[in-house]
Design a protein that fits this description.
The protein has 202 residues and is α+β, with helices and mostly antiparallel strands. It has two domains: 6-119, Aspartate Aminotransferase, domain 1; 138-199, no CATH class. It has helices at 6-14, 19-33, 104-119, 138-145, 148-156, 159-170, 175-190; strands spanning 38-42, 45-49, 53-59, 64-68. Strands 1-2-3-4 form a four-stranded antiparallel sheet.
Amino acid sequence: MAELNKKVDAYIAKSADFAKPILNHFRSVIHKARPDIEETIKWGMPFFEYKGTICNMASFKQHCAVGFWKASLMSDQNNLFSKDSETAMGQLGRITTLKDLPSDKVLMAYINEAINLNEAGVKVEKKISAKKELEIPLYLIAALKKNKKAQAAFNNFSYSYKKEYIEWIIEAKTDATRDKRIATAIEWMAEGKGRNWKYEKK
C-alpha cells in the first residue's frame, strides 16, 4: 500500500487548478510502479525515492514539470526528454494538461528504469569544473617580492585563499584603497592568514 506524505498532499492542494490533476495522476503512476516508493519534499517540491532519488514533480503558474534524477543515465527509449532546457526544469518539457504526459505504460517504464539504476547502485558522475587560472595583478606580485614570508605563504595557499585575496584587492574603487588593501594583505599573509581569517573557525 502506497504511503502518502501529507506535505505532498498540501503541495498539490496549493497548486493551480490546472496542475492538480497532472500532479495527482503522476503521483498515482509512481505508486503503481512501486507501492513502497517514499514521498518527501525537497527544495520546496515533491520528490519520490527508493534506494535513492527517482524523480520529482513541480507546479508553476502556467505549467508543471517532471524530472528524473538520473536522466543522463537513462536510455530514453521513447525520446521523451526535452532537449530545450529552457522549456521547463524537468525532462518532459512544459506540461499544461494531462494530455502532455506520456501514457501510463511509458511513464512506468521510465520510472522502473530509474528504480533499477538505484537498485544497481549506479551513481551520476559529478562534473568537476576546471579551475580558471588565477591572474595575479603585477602590483600584487611586486608587493609580494618585497616580503619573503608573505610570498612563501601566498605560494602555499589554496586556490580559494589566493582568489579571495586577489578579488579583494582588484575590487578596490580607488588607488588609495587598493594600496591600503595590499599593505594589509601582505601583513596578514606574512602571518600565514587567509583573507577571511577573522571568520574562520579556530
